[in-house]
Design a protein that fits this description.
single chain
Length: 315
């Protein structure tokens, strides 16, 4: 037993697991003897590669971001991200932010893990994190990527915000691009005032498909024909352009808006349902009961409600 123990210790020392299994498309090189606690907080070098869902639009959801902190050719400790092609001299603020993510998600407990599955879609291909410390300790793991992993989201934001502080915005979400609006729907039950609002467009089949703008406010229904739809939707578009809606992109793993547990269980629940359709067939939509999200959106909601109500004045 003593000989076996010494052999396992030697394998661990050289970074080998002594365990190799390839069954059913799964490759496992996990080192069971890797320490699950890292004492040091002083990162000397760092590497991570992972994929995040929907960053920032269809077509980018299989991009793997690779973040590194290591000395450059001149020996200057440098932070970089290869997909965006950015780099800058690293500092303690960045390394502290990275360590905070590691601690917050208990990533040291994954140390030594190496387990991947063959044949998965690109966004689930292996992701890796490696941190080397001034103490000589090392944290490393590799496993199937989770495109919505919380630690990866927070790590991305730690680097993105740090680069932005250095004047490099390449990892920030792009400016909101609003195309030509072709339809809109707003349903809002305002807990603060107790009022309810419902606005939208419907086609009257009996009247040769004439499009009618309707509203229900506190249960009272009204309809109005829109004389100039192009001007109407242009006005909606101008309102959207005045608000930064990037943080409410439902497709974004990083900035998806908050939803409640009831919203997840019941797709017909929600205190707020707001949907815009665009000429290029894209949509922007929010469905939530979370008061924090609704409070953040109140300036937009107020503008939209005032704009819509103006079309019913005098009716």
């Amino acid at each position: 037993m003593r000989i076996i123990s010494m052999l396992l210790s030697a394998l661990a020392f050289f970074g080998l697991s002594g365990c190799r299994q390839e069954k059913g498309g799964v490759t496992d090189h996990t080192n069971p003897l890797a320490p699950k606690t890292i004492v040091s907080k002083d990162i000397s070098e760092f590497y991570a590669t992972f994929c995040l869902a929907g960053e920032w639009s269809p077509g980018r959801d299989t991009i793997f971001y690779t973040f590194e902190v290591k000395p450059d050719a001149a020996g200057v400790l440098t932070a970089s991200e290869s997909a965006a092609g950015v780099s800058a001299p690293a500092d303690d603020a960045l390394l502290t932010a990275v360590q905070q993510v590691i601690d917050a998600h208990g990533l040291a407990a994954l140390n030594g893990e190496y387990r991947t599955t063959a044949g998965l879609p690109p966004e689930y291909w292996p992701c890796t994190l490696t941190a080397r410390y001034a103490s000589g300790e090392k944290l490393t793991f590799t496993h199937d990527n989770d495109p919505r992993a919380e630690w990866a989201k927070e790590l991305y934001l730690a680097f993105a915000d740090w680069f932005a502080a250095q004047g490099i915005d390449a990892l920030q979400p792009p400016e909101t691009v609003v195309g030509t609006v072709t339809n809109v729907q707003l349903w809002f039950k305002d807990a603060a005032s107790g009022r309810s609002y419902d606005y939208g467009i419907w086609s009257n089949v009996e009247d040769e498909g004439r499009r009618v703008f309707f509203r229900y406010v506190d249960g009272e229904k009204q309809e109005v024909a829109i004389a100039d739809e192009e001007a109407f939707f242009a006005g909606v578009g101008e309102i959207l352009k005045r608000h930064d809606l990037r943080s409410y992109d439902v497709h974004s793993a990083l900035y998806g808006y908050e939803v409640t547990e009831e919203d997840r269980k019941n797709p017909f629940s929600g205190a707020l349902q707001l949907v815009f359709w665009f000429e290029d067939e894209n949509q922007f939509g929010i469905h939530t009961s979370a008061e924090s999200t609704i409070d953040d959106l109140r300036p937009l909601l107020s503008e939209l409600i005032d704009y819509f109500d103006a079309f019913f004045e005098g009716d």
